Amino acid sequence: MKDSTDRPLHPRTRAVHAGTRRSQYGELSEALFLTQGFAYPDSASAEARFESLGDDEFIYARYGNPTVAMFEGRMAALEGAEDAFATASGMAAVSGALLSMLSAGDRIVGARALFGSCLYVLEDVLPRFGVEVELVDGTDPAAWERAITPGTKAVFFESVSNPGLEVVDIKAVSALAHAVGATVVVDNVFATPVDSRALDLGADVVIYSTTKHVDGQGRCLGGVILGTREFVRKTAEPFLKHTGGAMSPFNAWVMLKGLEHMHLRVGAQAETALTLARDLEGHPAVARVLHPHLPSHPQHDVARRQMAIGGTVFCIEVRGGKDACFRVLDALRVWTISNNLGDAKSIVTHPATTTHQRLPEATKAALGITPGLVRLSAGLEDAGDLRADLMAALATA
After folding, report:
1. Which of 110, 336, 339, 376 satisfies CB 3.0 to 4.6 Å to 156 for a cystine?
2. How far apart are alpha carbons 97 and 99 in whole angstroms?
């Protein structure tokens, strides 16, 4: 999408306009086509459509829908991808991307530090279908080099891990994977879709839970798979449309509305997150602070190279373990205890007892998910109010 001078449009502009489809009425706001089926003028037209779909033709909402197609087009334009497939949730995108490309006997290498549900897919689901899985320390280049051997079909990692905020070097890992012909699949949620560079750095497939920053207001579930048209339409789409993982038209419409102001929201949230992380460094009740753009972060240099903004999430480790941590969380008045992130409301999460509670204690320890670890997702409230609330709560620790 370009303007009249043939200059590529800014991502903020693409997030508002790209992929728009208007009906004969010329509506300004995107139309919500809340239909699961489509009518044909005659039997021959129905036959022709099932044989070969045109660019603006649809047969069933599980296969495609005008509102969903607008969202897919807008996300692809924003990310710089050839195509996109919108899914019912972020985990539908993760499982759909991986299950659609892997078969019994294939091998996938993944980062060990992953969201609990992603770990479930790699540790429980894929091996059940005969896929060999090896998990490595995502921050260790040598570990990737040892694990990515000839015959490796795919590589999967979160560009910034949940919840420990480990940053994986996308460019370096992609180079190793491509050397053996492996497809690189990156969950880019914590890096956010704002000024994302995952594809430029070598990722083949990028996944987002659009529940997070795209909607960003706690309303709807959604996900999206982005990549080449070949992968999206020939690999992911057949699997997802037949197994039922497609996004609903209503959710797609909500996501389109979220995209219009996503850059403004996420930019403000990221600025608040970094400010608060800096303020909490050195606090007597806090053992450590994690934020990708803090100089103290172990992968700070990598994060600066591949993330224009540091994200909306940071972590602290409260001294005194679970009991002290719970006292702090229960004393908060502005922050909300929940397990979402990227929301307009500021949210705190205790991963050890919620999102990652099913993991064995040894695994939690290896991933840095201690009893005192707190994940904080900065919202759109006043940064001073958020800071005051945190400081007052930390006094109870």
Report:
1. 110
2. 6
Bridge partners, 313 (sequence order): 377
* Domains in the chain with CATH codes: 11-260 (3.40.640.10), 263-394 (3.90.1150.10)
Amino acid at 33: F
295 by Cβ neighbours in 10 Å (0-12 / 13-18 / 19+) ranks as exposed
Region of 282 (left: φ > 0; alpha: ψ -120 to 50; beta: rest) is: left
Element containing residue 156 per DSSP (H, E): strand 152-158
